[in-house]
Each structure stands twice: as structure tokens, then as C-alpha cells.
Design goal:
The chain is an alpha/beta fold. It is built from 16 helices and 24 strands.
């Protein structure tokens, strides 16, 4: 056989199979086909405007997030799992975004090309997917969801065996592999197969109803009237069903999971006016709002007043700690009211950097009985180590049942009063260390934590300020809490001025 000249560099997927076939046809070549086609050092190129963090990969659909990129990332994750010895099914699910079907198919194609068998769940909340990964003892999972980001965004979140997100050390290894090599692909006879599982949501509901912390009969007996806003996200496939099983009388908006969000999908207090109107019109005792993948829960009281996300974890923790005792874990940006509630039960709070996996790892280390984040994410280890809005809703119903005759606003009114102010600002991340130093000079000396940006706390004043780069948006977050809105606003304003001055000095203005 004569010499064959290949006019292109090795590395394109289409050439892997061609090269293997040519090699196999050479005189004396081994005739037994290998199970995989070896990759060449031509790694996936990650666009500069793709958000890459412990939360996964996210961006605006079309630029930078394309089906080609998503397919490559799916193949890379499948190859990564196999390289690390995690063989078995990979579970894939998505939220309701209009780009979801396209990107779900792309990520499944990538996984199959790496030799992974895939179990597709369709439209499910992220916590439903994580529970399915754990219960099926799957090698891992991928959620196609951009969580609270607007409809034009989408993302990939990566789960590992056991049903938690990819820990930071493994994420570092995954990123290193992506930047070093093109994924190893399977040959035609080693491709993965795809199956469907349509029962994940019902299993999730059933597992919640079995939780010992809930008095399901008492909740059902109350026939609680609930207003619900699922923002036309994946929560629409589980929240009405769960509330119905708990005997609630449900009045819902945004329950059609079509991905056309009628409001800003982040369930902050400012975005819940329609839910407040529904509470008042229906006479509901409580209003629940979830984000598009239903891992965050926000509250509206019986007057139609949005309580926002910050109280969700605290009130859920009150139920759990009041029964079990133990430790609670949250992140550095969560309200002090959780500490007050924990102390009322003789319990303590430990804190971790922002990011679900960071909180989860600290929870595991501490043996915590409840945890989560101040963005409305509740984690109940009795079910799984994942932020779970349906679990949060069930715990809030129990919170109402635990105080017969007391309204939500009355019970919340008995708690210490704090005000949180949150802002997002554009700021060059390369200058953040300089900004932290400026803040340290400009603000009074306080307890300093640099594990996640800069957090300054003043215990006597019951105040704190947290400045950190977002892992899900190209912004820097400024969050402050104090006994009055004016004091919290002052802290955020001073932080914003310090950042502006730092950027101005760098620019020479």
C-alpha cells in the first residue's frame, strides 16, 4: 500500500474515524477494532464570553453557547467520567427554555459519542435530576438550564455520582482536560444508547411526602390555600402536583412549562408583583415563586407582600432545627436571621463560599441537618444534598401548620428585623484585589473573610457587607445587611464608590 497524504491536522472528530480506518488497513496492522478512537491534542476552544465557574458553563444562546460547543462539552464530560473510572449511565434533563430541546439533543449526542449510555428525563427541575442521579447510582448527570438567567441564556450544570454538583477540585481537572485534549470518542460499535425515564418527577414527589420532618396528615387537614408562580419553567411539572398531594387549594400563574417567561425569572421580591396580586385576589395564606429550574423558592405573605428569598432558608430551618437540632450551613451572603433562628434552638450556623457545591461540601463535613443559600435555596440532607424548591415549599407549609391561627406575616414579624440591599455592577475582575484593599481602608475595621471575594462583618452593629464576582453573570455583586435599610444602603453605596474609584484610577481618570 502506498503512502497516504492527509491534508488536514489530526484533531477534527470526522478525521478520527478516518485515521483509525487507514491505520487498520496498513499491512500487518492489528485487525481487532479498538473500542475507542484516540484523541489528538486539539482541545475544545471555550469562547471568552462563556461564563465558566463552579456552576458550570453558561452563556447567551447562539453566541457564545452553540449546539456545536454543547455537543463538545457533553463529549468531554463523558470522556472525563470514564477517565476517572465513573462508568455507568449519565442522566440528562432540562428546564423549559425554548433552546432546551436543541441543546439537550446536542449534549446527548456528545455523551453518546464518548460511549456513555444516557437516560433522558425531559423537562424536570434540577433537584429532580440530582435525585435521579443518586437513586439510579448513575455515573453523573447534566442539567441543561441557566437557572435564574433570562430566557436568551442557557447553561450546562454537571452532576457526579451521588447526586451533587461537580466539586471544585474535579471541576479543575475537567477544565484542565478540556484545555489539553479533544475528547476520546467511541467507535461505531461502542457508542452509547439512549433511554427515557418518565417517572422521575413522581418519584421526587413521593420521596418528599415520606420525609419524617413533615406531618403530611396535618398539612392535608389544613387545606392551605396557596398562590403559585412557576414563571413557565420546569417547576410547572412538579409544584402543582406536590401541592395537590399535600391537600392545598392552588391558584397558579406561569404553570405552563413553555419557556416563555412572563417576568424576570429570578424570584426576587421586585419581580413578584403579579404573585402578590394573585395572593390578594385568591385569599391565599402564602405565595410561592420558583425560578425556571425550581431550585430556588421565594415567598409572598398573606397580604400579598413579597418577602423575597432571604427568609426562605431561615423559616425552613426553623422547622428542621426545631425537631432535629444540629448544625445549619449557609453561604457568606445569607441573612443573619438564620443565626438568630439557630440560636433559638440551641444550634449553630457554619458558613461557606457562595455556590451550591461549596455549601454542600461544608454540610457534609459538619454533618448538617439543613442548609442552603440566601437566594431561596433549601437543602435537606434527609432527602439529598441539593437545593430543592419543592422541599422548601413543603417545609414552609409545615411552618404554617406548626403555628395554628398565626399568619405568615405575624410569625415573620416576630423575628429580628434586618434589611438586605443587593446590587450588581459591571467591574473589571482584574482589579478586584485592588478594590478589596480600597474597601478595607475606607470602611471601619470589621471581621474580614477573603474565602469568597471580601466579606466584612460588624457584630456590634449587626451588619455585614459582601463584595464578590458572580459565578453566573458577568458582574460583581454587592450585598449588605443591617438593622435598617438606610444603613445597608450606605454600605452598598460606599462599596460601589470604592469600586468606581479603583476603576477610575486604573483608567487614569
Amino acid at each position: 500500500m502506498g503512502t497516504v497524504a492527509l491534508p488536514y491536522e489530526c484533531g477534527r472528530d470526522s478525521f478520527h474515524g478516518l485515521i483509525a480506518l487507514l491505520q487498520a488497513s496498513l499491512p500487518g496492522a492489528e485487525r481487532r477494532a479498538p473500542s475507542t478512537v484516540q484523541s489528538c491534542p486539539m482541545p475544545i476552544q471555550l469562547p471568552n464570553d462563556l461564563m465558566v465557574s463552579v456552576s458550570g458553563f453558561r452563556g447567551v444562546v447562539g453566541a457564545p453557547l452553540t449546539p456545536e460547543l454543547v455537543c463538545g462539552l457533553g463529549a468531554a464530560y463523558g470522556a472525563f467520567l470514564r477517565e476517572e473510572g465513573d462508568r455507568g449511565n449519565v442522566v440528562v434533563g432540562r428546564d423549559s427554555r425554548t433552546s432546551g430541546p436543541m441543546l439537550e439533543r446536542a449534549v446527548v449526542a456528545g455523551l453518546v459519542s464518548a460511549g456513555c449510555d444516557v437516560v433522558g428525563l425531559g423537562i424536570v427541575p434540577t433537584p429532580t435530576l440530582m435525585l435521579a442521579v443518586r437513586d439510579a447510582e448513575a455515573a453523573g448527570g447534566i442539567a441543561v438550564t441557566a437557572s435564574h438567567n433570562p430566557a436568551e441564556w442557557n447553561a450546562l450544570k454537571f452532576a457526579v455520582r451521588g447526586g451533587t454538583f461537580l466539586p471544585s477540585a474535579r471541576m479543575d481537572r475537567f477544565l484542565a482536560m478540556i484545555r489539553r485534549l479533544d475528547p476520546v470518542r467511541a467507535r461505531w460499535d461502542g457508542l452509547g444508547v439512549v433511554t427515557r425515564d418518565g417517572g422521575a418527577v413522581e418519584r421526587h414527589v413521593a420521596r418528599i411526602l415520606e420525609l419524617p420532618v413533615l406531618d403530611v396528615d396535618a398539612i392535608r387537614a389544613r387545606r392551605i390555600r396557596v398562590a403559585l408562580d412557576c414563571v413557565n419553567g420546569a417547576g410547572g411539572v412538579i409544584m402543582p402536583a406536590l401541592l395537590d398531594r399535600l391537600g392545598c387549594r392552588v391558584h397558579a400563574i406561569g404553570a405552563e412549562p413553555d419557556g416563555r417567561f412572563p417576568r424576570d425569572p429570578e424570584p426576587t421580591a421586585a419581580n413578584l408583583a403579579d404573585l402578590g396580586d394573585l395572593v390578594r385576589a385568591s385569599g391565599a395564606e402564602i405565595g410561592f415563586a420558583v425560578d425556571p429550574d425550581a431550585d430556588r423558592l421565594s415567598l409572598v405573605d398573606e397580604r400579598g407582600v413579597p418577602l423575597g428569598e432571604d427568609l426562605t432558608l431561615a423559616l425552613a430551618a426553623d422547622v428542621v432545627l426545631g425537631r432535629a437540632g444540629g448544625c445549619a450551613v449557609t453561604n457568606l451572603s445569607t441573612s443573619r436571621v438564620l443565626d438568630d433562628i439557630a440560636r433559638s434552638h440551641g444550634c449553630r450556623v457554619a458558613r461557606a463560599p457562595v455556590g451550591e457545591i461549596n455549601v454542600v461540601m461544608r454540610m457534609i463535613d459538619e454533618g448538617a441537618v439543613v442548609g442552603g443559600e440566601g437566594n431561596g435555596g433549601v437543602i435537606l440532607p434527609a432527602l439529598h444534598h441539593t437545593r430543592d424548591a419543592p422541599v422548601g415549599a413543603a417545609l414552609l407549609l409545615q411552618y404554617l401548620v406548626d403555628a395554628p391561627g398565626a399568619t405568615l406575616s405575624h410569625r415573620v414579624g416576630q423575628l429580628p428585623a434586618y434589611r438586605i440591599v443587593k446590587e450588581k455592577v459591571a467591574f473589571p475582575r482584574a482589579l478586584l484585589d485592588d478594590a478589596y484593599e480600597a474597601l478595607g481602608r475606607d470602611l471601619p475595621v470589621g471581621r474580614r473573610d477573603r474565602s469568597d471575594g471580601l466579606r466584612l462583618e460588624w457584630g456590634r452593629e449587626a451588619s455585614w457587607l459582601h463584595v464578590r464576582p458572580s459565578g453566573t453573570e458577568p458582574v460583581v455583586r454587592l450585598i449588605a445587611e443591617a438593622p435598617t435599610a438606610e444603613s445597608a444602603r450606605d454600605l452598598v453605596d460606599r462599596a460601589r464608590r470604592a469600586l468606581a474609584a479603583t476603576a477610575g484610577i486604573e483608567a487614569g481618570t
